[in-house]
């Protein structure tokens, strides 16, 4: 099931996206929380009539770096023996179609296409065999990075945590085997990144076990699983798209921060 969060006529709701053809997709509005037992209202709205938002209302975004060996190599880094985590604030999230605002303190903005895991229940110290039980679903992510700031500042808070630096969407796919999916990133229609989730150094199970050892995860929290090689620059006016097999395409345009 594809679960979207959207706004229409000033109201925000969750809904199940139905249909196969892009121009015939509709959203069936959900009654209740998508993270608990819910009912479909039967009230259906054409997807073309709504504005897609970031598909979750998360408390935190836990991102893992250098989880693809080729990406670590292209930036001159070693692959970490254990998962290497950092945070992006919830205020960095935007949805598909929203604008990435080029930060005024950077001159080198990069795209990083990633598979995002969405947590579906409160959990802590999750055993490996129970990881699937705490996952709500998966979505596309772009870990937009001010690369020059990342290089000169020892902490990554500004480089990866600025407003609009975490596009997510277009929706959450709840029924998906994430073990070997194609991840692609294009900029203005030209391919920049192409990889597979099977190339991850540390698996999704590794990542959930690692971070839940340290902290409680809540429904709607997001885990970014790393990016394949091919990261590169974004400029004002560019349109960047992240496509993941079985999920869909997340598209955002880069604008000057006003």
Automatic annotation (TrEMBL):
Gene Ontology biological process terms in this record: carboxylic acid metabolic process
The entry's keywords: Hydrolase, Metal-binding
Domain of life: Bacteria
Listed GO MF terms: acetylpyruvate hydrolase activity; isomerase activity; metal ion binding
UniProt name for this protein: 2-keto-4-pentenoate hydratase/2-oxohepta-3-ene-1,7-dioic acid hydratase in catechol pathway
Coiled-coil segments: none
Native organism taxonomy: Bacteria, Bacillati, Actinomycetota, Actinomycetes, Kitasatosporales
Keyword Protease: no
InterPro entries named in the record: Fumarylacetoacetase-like_C (IPR011234), Fumarylacetoacetase_C_sf (IPR036663), Rv2993c-like_N (IPR018833)
Pfam families found in the cross-reference section: FAA_hydrolase, Rv2993c-like_N
Transmembrane parts of this sequence: none
Rv2993c-like N-terminal domain location: 1-55
Taxonomic source organism: Streptomyces spectabilis
Keyword Secreted: no
Domain (Fumarylacetoacetase-like C-terminal) ranges: 60-254
């Amino acid at each position: 099931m594809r679960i979207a969060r959207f706004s229409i006529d000033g109201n925000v709701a969750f809904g199940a996206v139905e249909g196969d053809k892009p121009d015939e997709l509709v959203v069936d509005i959900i009654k209740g929380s998508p993270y608990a037992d819910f009912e479909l209202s039967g009230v259906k709205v054409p997807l073309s009539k709504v504005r897609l938002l970031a598909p979750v209302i998360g408390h935190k975004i836990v991102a893992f770096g250098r989880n693809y060996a080729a990406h670590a190599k292209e930036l001159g880094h070693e692959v970490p023996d254990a998962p290497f985590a950092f945070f992006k604030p919830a205020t960095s999230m935007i949805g598909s179609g929203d604008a990435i605002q080029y930060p005024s303190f950077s001159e080198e903005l990069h795209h990083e296409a990633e598979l995002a895991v969405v947590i579906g229940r409160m959990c802590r110290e999750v055993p490996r065999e129970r990881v699937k039980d705490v996952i709500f679903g998966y979505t596309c992510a772009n870990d937009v990075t001010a690369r020059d700031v990342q290089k000169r500042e020892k902490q990554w808070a500004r480089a990866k945590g600025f407003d609009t630096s975490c596009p997510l969407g277009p929706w959450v796919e709840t029924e998906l085997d994430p073990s070997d999916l194609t991840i692609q990133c294009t900029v203005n229609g030209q391919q920049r990144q192409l990889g597979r989730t099977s190339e991850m150094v540390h698996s999704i199970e590794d990542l959930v076990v690692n971070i839940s050892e340290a902290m409680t995860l809540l429904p709607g929290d997001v885990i970014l699983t790393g990016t394949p090689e091919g990261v590169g620059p974004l400029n004002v006016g560019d349109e960047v798209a992240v496509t993941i097999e079985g999920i869909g395409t997340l598209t955002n345009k880069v604008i000057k921060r006003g």
